[in-house]
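Aim 2, interim progress: modelling of the benzoic acid-bound target.
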Amino acid sequence: MMDRAAAGQSWSATGYRHHAGFVATLGRPVLELLAPVAGERILDLGCGDGALTAELVATGAEVVGCDASPELLDAARARGLDVVLADGHALPFEAEFDAVFSNAALHWMTRPDDVIAGVARALRPGGRFVAEFGGMGNVAAITTALRAVLGEAGIDAFAMRPWYFPSPDEHAARLERQGFSVSSIELIPRPTPLPTGMAGWLETFAQPFLRHAPAVERAGLLARAVRLLEPALCDSAGNWTADYVRLRFRAARG
Ligand code: BEZ
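Predicted structure of the complex, ligand included:
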């Protein structure tokens, strides 16, 4: 997905599958909103390791995946998928897709107007853009805890905005400015169980914050963030839930 690299994030396909395998499973509703038709040509933007791309292929669509992580693309190729390395801010496609689909990737792309312009170029006239990603308020508690522990370590993280989490109004306006008509857009709070706990989530996704701390201090800061979050996001049986809020939309290119 872009740009995760630009956001200071690197990826291991094994670590992603272990700590974040739920991402593809929970992406089924946005696949339903896409309603792929056999024979359609679809771009999966930010396909990652291809878990959901493979489900799209199973519907009979002709699917190309793109992502900016070579490690995750290797895992997608190992599933036999057709994927290309591409930065979501500079998509290299011209009027060749019936639909662009994206799950849990757009929040890594912090220049959304560039992304939308590339999607508009990639679509045929009338083509649809259907996606779900983090919306306004997503991981607010987790972000606050990370800012707090970095602040205690003397690092000002208040201005760090490594992810794009817009409101429906903001994102719809961006789409409409580039000629899309938006048929649905909604914010969906979706508390999300974390199979490997908060430590697993932070280890997988919090690099854009933690990389600002000296390497020797990172494990301690991560443990401190876990302790801060425990009263809010961990139940009495030790089960962790992330404070996810999804933004899901369907738009069509004019
Ligand atoms: C998300 O899917 O909402 C997300 C994942 C990693 C970092 C930030 C948000």
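Residues 4-141+163-195+241-253 form a domain with the Rossmann fold fold (CATH 3.40.50.150). The CA atoms of residues 34 and 199 lie 33 Å apart.
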